[in-house]
Amino acid sequence: MGIESSCDETAAAVVRGQGAGPGEILSNTIFSQLDEHRPYGGVVPEIAARAHVEMLDGIVAQALAGAGIGLGGVDAVAATAGPGLIGGVMVGLVTAKALALAADKPLIAVNHLEAHGLSARLALGVEFPFLLLLVSGGHCQLLVAEGVGRFRLYGTTIDDAAGEAFDKTAKLLGLAYPGGPRIEELARDGNAKRYDLPRPMRGRDGADFSFSGLKTAVRQLTLEQQVDPADLAASFQAAVIDILRDRGRAAMDMFRRDFPQALAPAFVVAGGVAANSAIRNALAALASTEGFEMKVPPPKLCTDNAAMVAWAGIERAQLGLFDPLSVTARARWLLCEVA
Ligand code: KG4
Ligand code: ZN
Fold this sequence. Notes:
Layout: E1 2-4, E2 9-16, E3 24-32, H1 34-37, H2 45-67, E4 77-82, H3 86-103, E5 107-111, H4 112-124, E6 130-135, E7 140-147, E8 150-156, H5 162-172, H6 179-187, H7 212-224, H8 229-258, E9 266-270, H9 277-290, E10 293-295, H10 299-302, H11 307-318
Parallel strand pairs: 1-4, 4-5, 6-9, 9-10
Antiparallel strand pairs: 1-2, 2-3, 6-7, 7-8
Helix pairs in contact: 2-3, 4-11, 5-6, 5-7, 5-8, 6-8, 8-9
5'-O-[(R)-(carboxyoxy)(hydroxy)phosphoryl]adenosine binds near residues 137, 272 and 304.
């Protein structure tokens, strides 16, 4: 069983599987708190933590019922132990501890980013090593997944995450939170060449990202003139695509240098922003030019969910990586520290 509560999704799932995957998702229950946070234009940590407390036991019961088993039927209980909004993480981890203690099952404290990273194995059985682009509201990183708990960081954002840039741009356009899907919709009918926006870090050494200059440029435009929302959305999305493509290409060079023996390695794109089809298409084209095979988990497994947490639990359990009940929730927890 997996439990996820690190942001604004309260989720529980039951997954069965082994080896490199794919796994069998027996249930995948999600309660999205979007309605609670929408009036504030973003996730409010206290509201999130309270909603997790109110919802989680019911969500766990639903996930068990959906899988057609009782708590006694699960082999282990995994929960996101970080990184994330600390109040929410604590609710999920404490719930998992209580379940593990009550049912006498082992506990697995899962890094949320590792769960996103391994979701391609759950969904598609992708083999190690693979190149991973993690693009969500909180994270924007390029990594190599060499094994469970073994990640090598190629690049990370030095300011905002890509999803955050989408959300902030959407807010400037007066669109509802979360803005990513709204921007994608608007961009479909927009002229991407209308506004000339910067592509920070493009062409730089390494594979780091930066999005704050792009966000500032969008803000400046909206202050200076009456913008056309569809054209601005399209221009913004085109800039993000250029940035992701450029940084992705740099990481592919690094991967080929580090793993010259890997034939047609997988390029996995995970996290909420991977739900964007324009971004997916651009990255798929890049991957095929560069000799990589792009793999994207289905949208339900790309955004926050508990099936990926359960799966990360399975992968860790197979290696005997269990955690004591004294394990603590962490607001910050880098993926290169999970080993
Ligand atoms: O992975 P996720 O559900 O949560 C975490 O941040 O961990 O990602 C949510 C982020 C939000 O910033 C949202 O705006 C963005 O993913 N997102 C999108 C799209 N769908 C979700 N961004 C661009 N295009 C989309 N279609
Ligand atoms: Zn996430």
